[in-house]
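Note to self: the last two entries modelled the partners one at a time, which told us nothing about the interface. This time every component goes in together.
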Amino acid sequence: MDSNQPSFDMRDHSFLGRMRRRFRGWVNRRIPPAREVTLDQRRIFIFPSRTGLFFGCSLTVMLIAAINFENNLSYALTFLLATLFIVATLHTYANLSGLTLRAVRAQPAFPGQQSEFLVMIERKKRRDHYALYLKWPTSSDALVNLVEDDNIKVQLHMPVDKRGWFRPGRLLLESTYPLGLLRCWTWVDLDLHALVYPRPMSSAELPGLATDTPDGAAAMVDGNDDFYGFRDYRKGDSLRQVHWKGLAKGQEIQTKQYTAYADRSVWLDWELFPGMGVEQRLSHLCYWVLEFDDRREEYGLRLPGVTIEPAVGDKHREQVLKELALFGKGEAQR
Amino acid sequence: MNVLQQVPRNALVWIIISLFALVAPHVARLPIWVLAVYVIAVIWRLQVHRGRWSFPGRWVKVAMTVSGFVGIYASYGTLVGLEPTVALLLTAFALKFIELSQRKDAYVLLFLGYFICITEFLFSQDLLITLYSVLTVVLVTSALVALHQPGLNRFNRGTARLAGIMLLQAVPLMVVLFFVFPRFGPLWTVPLKNHTAKTGMSDFMKPGDVASLSQSADVAFRVKFEGAIPEKSALYWRGLVFSRLEQNVWSGLGYYDVPLSEQRVDEVVTSGKPLSYSIIMESTQQTWLYGLNYARARSAGVLHSSDYRLMSPAPLETEYMYKVNSWLNAPIEMELSDWRRKTETTLPPQGNDRTRQMALDLRAAAGSDEAYIQAVLNKFNQEDYVYTLRPGKLSGQNTIDKFLFETQRGFCEHYASAFVFMMRAADVPARVVAGYQGGEINPLNKTVIVHQFDAHAWAEVWLENKGWVRVDPTAAVSPLRIEMGLEEAMASEGSFLSAAPLSPLRYRSIPLLNQLRLRYDALTYRWQSWVVGFDSEQQFDLLHSMFGEISTRVFATLLLGSWALVLVPVAISLFFKRATHPVSPLDKYYRIFCDRMAGLGLVRSPGETPGQFAHRAIEALPGFKEELLQITGLYDDLAYAGVKDKAELTQFTRAVNKFRPDRRRGLVEEDITI
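The predicted structure of the combined assembly is written out below.
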């Protein structure tokens, strides 16, 4: 576990800290991480809520009134409400039982940004589920009903800070429906991680820019010199390079490609930033990745042990950023 | 605001409904301005909801709370007692509603609502009130459910249904708890009702009191005899004894009027089988109980006074049930102490001189006390005395003279009072007794219903070797009153219940209405004896008869057993829901069609539209082209245009039912060879 795990401190040696760790361990064994969790009695916890305790106090007052006034109907109402409390246990439990929580995806993000986590709640039985409250320890929260549809996607946002995989911890799913007297909840680890890229750090110019052709290094003009062919339009391609004539004739949308584009590819190299720390280098590299991606120019990446051939496009950018994000974080993390 | 703390609009509607439902039964007891507070509170809160007004500020809240207290104090003159306390509670309830903004406010409000339901029971445990309270409990619970249904902005009946279902599921265990939970006495003294009118007989009597009580058709108490019901003329429900006459007002002896040596009553020698019965009194706010003389209570907690009355230690706040044994012929107080003789022969020093003179003359002529009594009764019977509910007002001094010699029109209290006066004037110990006489027998459950109009006053005379003997001068004037009841006695006058034109008792001649009234009364009796009057004695009897020896183990088994009995069915109903959605008949038959196709090896893939599937099927099985096109076409029409009339659907289902490709193998040989 890395330090991105929130609210869990291994160094806490107090009694409470130890108890909390043991409890975590117990929960981990009981509800192991999985992409999809169906809630059953092993995974659902239920206990009177604070409101329930308050209700219990109210019932005690009512009982005392019944005893003191020797009023049988007051007894009856008190017992009815006490039994209602017990019956509500089953209803509250049933509101979570049988639901399936599924990890959909987690949006990669830069440090300081909010990552969007998408989970899906699904029901298998025809039963209305109300007031399902979802929250990760540091995320925004959501309150959803599962009444008309059989599944619902819930977006939760949470700030991320450190480069690498962000583990949001256990997702809390809670409900006090129907009476608020009991709190029924579960903590599931959906095995959903968000990729956190390095924090982009600008540098005025790229020192000792490494290109395939050393003399073309500084010529950062748009590569529209020599046309050499078409390829399928990809999202993000410049509109200036779209083959509009073809499109007008009813052909598929295509992008014109130019040789200069390919020639002027840049290598973003670990060695470009001598004398800097690991995070700093990655931050600068990250900045330039975004910069070149913005300009739709080809770029490659050379890190110690990693080489990505120059290319352009969203997929390429994501691959490069992922390498930067996970650099030095250990192979097991990929 | 936290999403969990929001109050859905739907919940707000339910809370407002419960608010008014809760205050409604209290209206008659509340000062009118409290109701105004309710209206203002709802308007204010709705304006807040619409964004017009804002929540009250802190000082406004403080001001409202203080004026609430001041208002209650001004209306009741005190803050102590049950009525002011409940009024305060109801005012607080309305004020709390104004500032309802978060869910936790709503919890406080609704739990207070449940408590207000309970306070209603302190005033009445009537069957109708109980049914109404069930409704309010459902409403409050619905509001609680609605509070947890975010995003349901439309008013939803399902909310109340769930609340109702949950309450129904709670009923069985509640019933067990009700009968099993130990009943012990009050833990401390509680505020009493001191603003509710006392009903029934009062502890003093002046001419006209009983007559005015006789205008009421309310039930005083109900009696259930363990054996046969005695004759109506023997039913003298003795409640109060008036031994003192001061300024034309008869009153009873207070506890401190009786010297300590007289407090302890000689044990009455009883013989023979007693008459056993139980009585359920309506609440009177008074302490006296009724019984047939000589009465000995079988219920613990009933006191016996020195003049052989039954008393409750505390005023009857609600319905009260007690059991009595009576020996109608037991001689009472054979030895009269000097103090008692003096007390029961004392008259005011002067006044009513003509009566006094007549008494002395009659006594001298009679020769014995018995003969004297007979002479007085004969006088009432033979002279021109009238028994009437409209005796006219007797005022000033010497009212007994005026009654005996001038008006000669009186109700039972006039006759009893004049009779006792004449006895005492001749030095015969006598006193006035007040209570009820007779009662209506409900043939449905064999109970005797005693109404307020059965109120009666008679006399007791002490005779040597006989003790206290009951003498009813009214019987001498109007024998019909004692044998048949007030209605028959007043038939010619037409004054029976003239002040209560709507009382169902006036319509006893209509069989259907009378049947309904008696049925409801029987239901009320059952309700009072099993629910309202259920006490530790009845509890012991019930548990003993059901389980024999009562031990902790029996209790535990009972509780756990009922627990399982309640929760298992609930759990089954909750967790064994149908696994899939209910399928429309259209989809159901299309599935049957697909299943039949699958039987031929043509499985519809998940993303395939019916049209595509039909296309593929026709290619594979050209022999079925016509049917395939028909079924698919109908399905498409119905699925996209909606099922408008049944005929189309029937056409579709019939087409599917007829489609039996496996039975027409001849047409598909090319497929079978594959």
